[in-house]
Amino acid sequence: MELKSLEKLPAVYVCDELSTRRGDAVWRVRLSGEPWLYLLVLLEFQARDEPRMALRILTYTSLLYEELVRNGEVAAHEALPPVLPVVLYNGESAWRAASEVGDLIAPVGPSLAPYQPTQRYCVVDERHLGEDDLPSGNVMTAVVRLEQSRSPADLKRVLENLASWLRGPDDGELRRAFVDWVRLLADRLVPPGSPVPRVATLEELRMSLEERVAEWPKQWMREGMEKGIEHGLGQGIEQQRALLRRQAALRFGEETAARLAGLLARVSGAARLAEAGEWIVRCGTGADLLARVVALAAGSAPTRGDE
What we know:
Layout: E1 2-9, E2 12-14, E3 20-22, E4 25-30, E5 36-44, H1 53-70, E6 83-89, E7 122-125, H2 139-148, H3 152-165, H4 172-187, H5 202-213, H6 216-231, H7 233-252, H8 254-264, H9 270-282, H10 286-298
Helix pairs in contact: 2-3, 3-4, 3-5, 6-7, 6-9, 7-8, 7-9, 8-10, 9-10
């Protein structure tokens, strides 16, 4: 593929009934010596796989073809361009959905089989790719590492790599695409009410994340204290614990958050809970977070003024 020719296209399709469907991303790239190949990329952010993803891919592919014909990008006498549908999946469990749309259709006899739709998509199960599976200095590696990011610090490291890899004058489209993508991922990691601002470059985005990381634990503590003033300090502590649980769920998943909730019940005092909030930001894995909060809970004997 000639990656320098990579071009992002609108991912909104209007069918004949005037209803609008939106795909996650559509790119086109020129193959060496071949016509345009359209990459239909679905950024799948669900916590579990989508059983009928093959049907969704087939729908998006058909709508994409109709849009190309409607806009005159494919003439009546021309063949439709090939499509490579890719699902980037970052859920905790392994992807198990059928990758072939024919597997979703009831079995039929040989006489009907040739008339059934067939299409397969490629799934990149990012959370289950090891470091040895990823080539160094590769943009696809950056894509996977972005999706594997569990903290703003992880995002910053990937941004630094991207800034060094995408320095060429022909990389502008990719740089803009990654800025939009990282903002979307960062918004899932930040506290509620603290959105990542719109920026134009990878370096501006990295600096913005760096400025905000130190403030998030303070914001969580402040929100907990405000709840304490509003509802009484005892209830405020409970509100702070609930807030920390939600933040842990966003970063590390529900299983880690559920285990954290039991540990936080043994942590007394707003200051110690704020320390737990800092670990939610700083820890790279859920296991690391739980280990640190176990130690925090073990040394959390109540003192006067804590509650």
